[in-house]
Structures are given as C-alpha cells and as structure tokens.
Specification:
mainly beta; five-stranded antiparallel beta sheet; 3 helices; 9% helix; globular
C-alpha cells in the first residue's frame, strides 16, 4: 500500500479536556478516527523484520474510509522495525495526554541485518503527524536485565514517561528520548500494557498467573510483584490456559482478548463487582468469537448506550483484517461484527486505537458556549 498524500481536516484530539468540552452537547458519538498499526513489506508478513505504518480510517456508524497512511522510518539512525511473526508484540496505545500513539520495535534493517538491535519506542505525534524514535534502549545494560533483550512487546506513555513490557520477564520505565531504562517489576512474563484510572495494568499470558495485573499508580522504581491480579479476585478467568492480551476498560466493564490454547480466539467481557473484583458476565453476551482468528488487538469506547469495539486480527493471510462491533450495555449482548478493511497482501494489522470525532452539533454547541462566555465577559468589561 503506497503512502496516501490526501489530508483530512484537522482532528481535535489533543486532550481529553478539549474533547469533553466540545462533546458536551451530544449523548451519542458515532464518528471515530481509527488508527491501526500495520506492518509488512507487500510480499510477506512473517520472518525478517518489517516496516511499520500508521493507517488512519474514518468511521461513521458503518464502513471505514482510509484517510491517510504514514510510514515509520525503516532505515538510517532513526529506524524502527519489528519481526513479522511477532504477533503479540505490536500493541498501539494512546498516551494519557492524548497526543501520541506508542508502539515497540527494534533498530534493525528490514532484512534483519545491520543496526544496533536496540529497543526502540515509536511515538507518533497526532498533532504534527510525525514519528519520534529517539527513545532507544540497548539490548544489554542500560537497565535491561536479559542478555539479548528479546521479546519487548508494548509501550504506553503519559506523553513523557514511558512504560514497556517484555518476556524476559520484566516491566521497564524510561522517558522520552532516553537511552536508559529502570526495571520496575521482574516477577513474571508480561504481555500488553495500559493505564487506567491512573494505575498501571498489564496482561499476562503464560505460567500460572494468567489475567490482568494492576499496580497502584505509575511506578518509576522497582516495586516487584503487582498489587492485585484480577484473576485472584474475580471469576471466569482461565488460570491454566488463558492467553490474555489486549484489553480496554469502559465504565464498569473490562474487554479482554484471549487466544487460549485449544479454545476459540475471543473477546471476553468482565464486569466490576467490587474493588479489583472483575467477574466474567453470565449469559450469551460474555464472549465474542465471530470474525476473530489470529491475535486480536482491540480498542473500546462508549457510544451512547453501547460500547463500540474496533479490533484487528493479526494472523496473516486472510486474517489481516480490521473489524467493528457493538456491545449493548442494556441487553449485554454483542452485535454482528462489521468488516472494515483488509491490510492488503503482504501486510497485517496489529494494534488499533479509536478516538471519537466531535460531531458537528457538538462543535457548534461548544463554540456557542464559548461565544456566549466571551460575550458576557465583554459586556462585563463595558459595564
């Protein structure tokens, strides 16, 4: 897929406060900007190291239109690539300040030769539409514990501080532009990572501690084991075989992908029944298995009385697709998944992030409030 040069109108995604103000006049947000991390070389999606792309789709209640595509640098001193067969290692995460999309990669040529092999955190600036790959942590030393430093999977940021996971097993903290990392948790192998309500969360897909783990706050020094594991407190977690990966919180619900051994790949829905108690929902609406084949990555947002989920299937071949599905909070049931896009031959989608677009009515409403406030202020001065 060639780089698209068409640009859309400016997106208001700089911060949650801005969006909350503009959206105050509407209850339903059916339009979304959907960012998908795509990798490949147009020939194959497995083996060697592949280039990264950020694709932007516009979604408005049905179907998705590709608006733009940006290629991450894959050569020179600022390159970032990823192994084509690293299915679980390609999360895309929105920063807490709403300004960046983050993902992990390596300093390696796309053919697998050359480069420092450093860990690289890719930060895509949503305002300038540019990549920052200045955060480059050596595979050994500089706080990295494992020789060779294999298996770094995902990164999340608040805009400056960065936390990333690995299978060594470790969770690390660093800062934008740094070449050093601090080992903050070294108990188990961790998978994907997120920040919710100011706390650090990671998924766990191996050993005897499957589930979602939580740390109190955002630690920057070594804190050891997590404060709580949802699988210990709640019900419906597969402690033996659960292959938990991507996850998202919406109100009192937790959506988690699971590629369990011997079971269907799925998205499971858990409900919060108390502090740190997350129980699998009863009934037919607890699990989605339709149109999921491969390693799914998801993003979920509230859309009126529903939750709108966007998810990708990173499985190669015909599984390299992007989907949308609704989950009704009243009936607690999934709708029918809608196929939105294919990554194209020789490419696959990985992480996905959806951001609401302010509706025209909400924008007018917000600007009306702003105008009224300025008018009152002006009259006050004249008085």
């Amino acid at each position: 897929m060639r780089k698209i040069t068409k640009f859309t109108t400016t997106r208001l995604v700089a911060g949650a406060a801005t969006f909350a103000f503009l959206a105050s006049g509407t209850a339903t947000l059916a339009a979304f900007d959907v960012y998908a991390l795509r990798k490949g070389d147009g020939v194959e999606v497995t083996g060697s190291h592949q280039a990264h792309f950020i694709d932007l789709f516009s979604f408005n209640g049905g179907g998705a239109t590709l608006q733009n595509s940006w290629a991450a640098p894959d050569s020179g001193t600022d390159r970032i690539t990823q192994g084509g067969n690293f299915a679980t290692y390609s999360q895309l995460a929105l920063s807490v300040d709403g300004n960046f999309l983050s993902f992990m990669g390596r300093d390696v040529e796309v053919d697998g030769s050359g480069g420092s092999n450093d860990h690289v955190v890719g930060m895509f600036n949503l305002q300038t539409q540019t990549f920052d790959t200045s955060t480059r942590i050596p595979t050994e030393g500089a706080g990295i514990a494992q020789s060779g430093g294999r298996g770094f999977r995902a990164a999340v940021s608040d805009g400056n501080d960065i936390w990333f996971t690995g299978r060594n097993p470790r969770i690390y903290h660093t800062t934008l532009g740094s070449d050093q990392a601090t080992d903050i948790a070294n108990t188990w192998e961790y998978n994907l990572i997120g920040i919710h309500n100011g706390d650090l969360h990671v998924s766990r897909r191996a050993g005897s501690t499957h589930g979602i783990h939580r740390w109190d706050g955002l630690p920057t020094t070594n804190v050891g084991a997590m404060d709580v594991r949802f699988a210990d407190e709640g019900t419906g977690w597969d402690n033996d075989n659960g292959q938990y990966g991507s996850f998202a919180f919406v109100d009192n619900y937790l959506f988690v992908t699971n590629t369990a051994f011997g079971a269907s790949d799925q998205i499971s829905v858990f409900v919060n029944d108390g502090p740190d108690v997350w129980n699998l929902l009863d009934g037919p609406g607890q699990i989605l298995t339709d149109s999921i084949n491969g390693v799914p990555h998801l993003s979920a947002l509230k859309d009126g009385d529903e939750v709108r989920l966007f998810y990708s299937n990173e499985g190669g071949g015909d599984n390299n697709a992007l989907y949308s599905v609704t989950w009704d909070m009243s009936s607690q049931t999934f709708g029918t998944p809608e196929h939105l896009a294919n990554a194209g031959e020789g490419y696959t989608f990985a992480g996905v992030v959806a951001i609401p677009e302010p509706s025209t009515y909400a924008l007018i409403f917000g600007l009306g409030i702003l105008g009224a406030a300025l008018l009152v202020r002006r009259r006050g001065r004249q008085a």
